[in-house]
Automatic annotation (TrEMBL):
It comes from the Eukaryota. This is Purine nucleoside phosphorylase. GO terms for biological process: nucleoside metabolic process. Residues 30-284 form the Nucleoside phosphorylase domain. Belongs to the PNP/MTAP phosphorylase family. InterPro entries: Nucleoside_phosphorylase_d, Nucleoside_phosphorylase_sf, Pur_Nuc_Pase_Ino/Guo-sp, Purine_phosphorylase. It catalyses: inosine + phosphate = alpha-D-ribose 1-phosphate + hypoxanthine; guanosine + phosphate = alpha-D-ribose 1-phosphate + guanine; 2'-deoxyguanosine + phosphate = 2-deoxy-alpha-D-ribose 1-phosphate + guanine; 2'-deoxyinosine + phosphate = 2-deoxy-alpha-D-ribose 1-phosphate + hypoxanthine. GO terms for molecular function: purine-nucleoside phosphorylase activity.
């Protein structure tokens, strides 16, 4: 395979990262959990943890956003070997979409069989309240409308086919397990199923943009998740994702409320325990699929 001009999807770089990680951890992970803003506490649920800082790993990006610690936590959860990313990467940080999604391919080389992906998001759907959970059933990839895609460039068939379907991007069976897990941890009345939209950031949305998102059927909006899901599906990995609604999007010019990142982190921390329990229950119910 010829590398991209930037070498950001260079297989040699990815294999070097995977070799280093393999030399540092005793058990290869079977499940990757990506933590959204303020959701790094999910890693506290991992048993027998082994921590690697991103800056230790060759060719690995670095987190620059508050609420993203920049660590990989390896260990077990409900007897499943897992790796938790405490800190993801965003296009607005200056990374290309290829660099944002490099960790997915590294973990695929390490042997993961699935992806749990989480994010903090704004509620576009007027029925959503702060503190609700939205299980992601589909997404709207606004990057793609402008020609931006993490798989743009030469394809590596060892990861996946050049062209692949996305009509089942989020595994339906896993979504049903997510509903069950949410009910078991007391979130049944705060759990929705909806469509996630990606916005480049770093600014939050205008009123006109929110009105447009409501018009086209987006239920929650954020600045991540979709690029990682695209690459995970290219690699043939089943995906379960959820958004934690940290603010209601402003859709009126008369509304003086303004979203801010510090408030978002505070909201996440207030529900941290239930979010952890949701992930624990989900892994418990799906453990046979990953082993």
């Amino acid at each position: 395979m010829s590398a991209l001009p930037t070498d950001e999807f260079n297989r040699g770089f990815i294999e070097e990262s995977a070799r280093f990680i393999r030399s540092q951890v005793p058990v290869a992970p079977k499940l990757l959990i990506i933590c959204g803003s303020g959701l790094g506490g999910l890693a506290d649920t991992i048993e027998k943890p082994v921590t690697l800082s991103y800056d230790e790993i060759p060719n690995f990006p670095q987190s620059t956003v508050p609420g993203h610690a920049g660590e990989l936590i390896f260990g077990t959860l409900s007897n499943v070997p897992v790796v938790c990313m405490k800190g993801r990467f965003h296009y607005y940080e200056g990374y290309s979409l290829q660099k944002v999604t490099t960790p997915i391919r590294i973990m695929q080389l390490l042997g993961i069989k699935g992806l749990i992906i989480t994010n903090a998001a704004g509620g576009v759907n007027k029925a959503y309240q702060v503190g609700d959970i939205m299980l992601i059933k589909d997404h709207l990839n606004f990057f793609a409308f402008g020609g931006q895609h993490p798989l743009r460039g030469p394809n590596d068939p060892q990861f996946g086919a050049r062209f692949f379907p996305m009509n089942r991007a989020y595994d339906r069976a896993l979504l049903e397990v997510g509903k069950r897990a949410a009910a078991e941890v007391g979130l049944a009345n705060h759990c929705h199923e909806g469509v996630y939209g990606i916005y480049s950031g770093p600014n939050y949305e205008t009123v006109a943009e929110i009105k447009y998102l409501q018009l086209v059927g987006v239920d929650a909006i954020g600045m991540s998740t979709v690029p990682e899901v695209l690459v995970a599906k290219h690699c043939g990995l089943p995906v379960f994702g959820f958004s934690f609604i940290t603010n209601k999007c402003v859709d009126s010019y008369e509304d003086a409320e303004e979203p801010n990142h510090a408030h978002i982190l505070d909201v996440v921390q207030a529900k941290a325990k239930k979010l952890k329990n949701l992930v624990i229950k989900f892994v418990e119910h799906t453990s046979d699929q990953w082993l």
